[in-house]
TrEMBL record:
SUPFAM superfamilies according to UniProt: Periplasmic binding protein-like II, vWA-like
InterPro entries reported in the protein's UniProt record: VWF_A (IPR002035), vWFA_dom_sf (IPR036465)
One Pfam assignment: VWA
Name by which UniProt lists this protein: Substrate-binding and VWA domain-containing protein
Transmembrane segments: 33-55
Entries under SMART domains matching the protein: VWA
Keyword Membrane: yes
Basic and acidic residues: compositionally biased ranges: 1-18
Region: Disordered, residue numbers: 1-30
Length: 599
């Protein structure tokens, strides 16, 4: 049998677990047994009470606790939440009350928009402490101007180029070392036959993602330092506007797919680490560090609480987050310290490097605002009516190559079409004189509409290209320019679309208005355009005029452009067309207040 219950001692049997009393010794009385026991219990109770008092005296948990609302960028939220858990167990107090911290992941753009009223949100967001992914949100949303500022930094993560491991190996010959210069060349819409033939650049929307904006700022700074012009930047922005992805998850999913052109994206270093360590892909992502240096996301700590006790609680949480233990938690989640020091998580096995990359200075607020506005303008849709001169003089040579002005214009139009995405709305008219009966000098060839839309079985893009290759000058045709231009202007203003850049592109040889039927004089067309132009509903006129030598003709063309905030260009060779088209697109960066231009 097993050991016996102590109640069996009353039966007079020996209990082997109790020592025998020595012979001749006096048995203790019941009172002498209970007295030490009672004393031990009393001491234990007193010690327990003392421990309770000491612990709770430190916690100061009088009344309801203060609930601290913390909102963090989704990438750093897991680390902040882990710090908050430790913080809640630490016994921190504020205003004599205990503090509990709840952490919620919200996109930084959503919080910035909600707090500033500057854009769309998914609901009310009113944190006591905010950790966005970048202080750029304070600058671009105007929050910095309202007095809101960072009181510290939770982490750092450089913006890097990224490709799949397989893609990076294929890029060694064409894209090594990695650089912003190489990325800009690959993304330049005006150079489709260069690096773009091998590399497809993917971009995170800079309006929604700080890594995307950081990449544009870094690329722009490198471009400016290298003496690059605005046209190249516009070409890059135009191309990137058509290759944005909605999120880092979409970016990495695209990077790992097999494609004819190697996909190269832009992301934060931490997102590369997170993709590799959470998804464990068979073809992991690799961070490529630009040789010129880069801009880093700085994860500012922004205390927004107004109540004194809540603000004290937020400051206590910031202390916890920036403590040595807090820093370690953040590093373990793939981030660097604010000074750029890497933890053990940043290793080649995870697709990243521990070495601190060179830093590019973060641009000032004015530069950020300018580039943000440029992106917004480039993203606007395009609506273009091309007005093409087919009068007799267009059959004459355009330059020393002997190609006719008409053929040069056709080539120009086909070349220019490559710069516009499928959603762009484009239409074409030709003009000479009496094309649709007496006194009607213009004729619609392809109606306005999206380039991707099909007309009689072919896309509008292909239809326009076909018409431009076949267009012929009318040997005996006169130039009813003014009447045709005014008809086109009325159409575009009557059908104005606010979400697009509305433009007339006039292709001519600049010999002026020559209309035997009379029509509008040069003076009258200028007066009408000045009267009709509305800067709140701008329709600009861009003029590409070959071989315009006469000063009087150039002056008239420039005056027409100036009346609508447009520009007049006078190329002497066909090779100038790409630059001219990009200059035309670049003008949307300043629309509707660009002023006139003559090139």
């Amino acid at each position: 049998m097993g050991g016996r219950h102590r109640t069996e001692e009353t039966d007079g049997e020996h209990d082997p677990y109790v020592p025998r009393r020595r012979r001749g010794s006096r048995p203790p009385s019941r009172g002498r047994v209970l007295a030490p026991l009672a004393g031990a219990v009393a001491v234990a109770v007193l010690c327990g009470v003392a421990a309770y008092v000491v612990v709770n005296k430190g916690r100061g948990c009088d009344g309801a606790p203060i609930g601290l609302s913390v909102v963090a960028s989704p990438d750093i939220e897991p680390a902040v939440a882990k710090v908050a858990q430790k913080f809640g167990q630490s016994g921190r107090t504020a205003g004599g009350k205990c503090v509990t911290a709840s952490v919620k992941a919200v996109q930084s753009a959503t919080v910035a928009n909600a707090m500033s009223g500057s854009g769309p949100t998914s609901g009310k967001v009113d944190p006591d402490l905010w950790v966005p992914d970048s202080s750029l949100w304070l600058t671009r949303s105007g929050l910095a101007g309202s007095g809101l500022k960072a009181s510290g930094s939770a982490a750092r993560s450089p913006v890097v180029l990224t490709a799949s491991k397989t893609g990076a190996e294929k890029l060694q010959a064409a894209f090594s070392p990695a650089s912003w210069t190489g990325l800009l060349n690959a993304a330049n819409a005006a150079n489709p036959d260069g690096l773009a033939r091998k590399v497809r650049v993917l971009a995170l929307d800079p309006a929604q993602n700080s890594a995307g904006l950081g990449a544009l700022l870094a690329g722009s700074a490198v471009l400016k330092a290298g003496g690059g012009g605005e046209e190249l930047l516009v070409g890059v922005l135009r191309q990137l506007s058509e290759s944005t992805v909605s999120s880092p998850d979409s970016l990495f999913a695209t990077l790992t797919k097999a494609a004819a052109r190697i996909p190269v994206g832009v992301a934060s270093e931490q997102s590369v680490w997170a993709f590799n360590t959470t998804s464990h892909p068979s073809n992991p992502a690799v961070a490529l560090y630009p040789e010129e240096g880069t801009i880093s996301l700085d994860y500012p700590i922004v205390i927004t609480a107004k109540d004194a006790a809540v603000r004290e609680a937020a400051e206590a949480f910031q202390t916890e987050l920036t403590s040595a233990a807090g820093r370690q938690i953040v590093q373990d989640h793939g981030f660097r310290t604010p000074q750029g020091k890497a933890g053990g998580a940043l290793s080649p096995e995870n697709g990243v490097k521990a070495d601190k990359p060179a830093e590019l200075a973060l641009p000032d607020g004015a530069a950020v605002a300018k580039l943000t506005q440029a992106w917004h303008q480039i993203k606007l849709g395009t609506r273009i009516l091309a007005l093409i001169d087919v009068s007799g003089t267009m059959g004459e040579p355009a330059d020393s190559t002997g190609v006719s002005r008409m053929r040069a214009i056709g080539n120009v139009a086909v070349e220019g079409l490559k710069l516009f995405p499928d959603k762009s709305e484009v239409g074409t008219w030709i003009f000479s004189d009496n094309l649709r009966g007496q006194g009607v000098d213009w004729k619609e060839i392809v109606p306005l509409g999206p380039l991707a839309q099909r007309i009689d079985g072919v896309t509008r893009r292909d239809r326009i290209a076909q018409e431009m290759r076949n267009v012929q000058a009318i040997p005996t045709g006169n130039t009813g320019l003014n009447d045709s231009l005014w008809a086109a202007y009325r159409k575009m203003t009557d059908e104005y679309q606010a979400d697009k850049v509305n433009t007339i592109i006039l292709f001519t040889d600049g010999v002026g208005n020559d209309d035997p039927n009379g029509g509008l004089s040069n003076k009258e067309i200028l007066a009408k355009l000045k009267s009709a132009y509305d800067p709140k509903r701008p329709v600009g006129i861009l003029i590409i005029s070959f071989n315009t030598e006469k000063g009087v003709d150039r002056a008239q063309m420039s005056a027409i452009a100036k009346a609508t905030g447009g520009a007049a260009y006078f190329p002497q060779t066909v090779l100038e067309i790409r630059e001219i088209f990009l200059k035309g697109i670049a003008r949307r960066l300043c629309a509707p207040s660009c002023g006139s231009a003559q090139r």
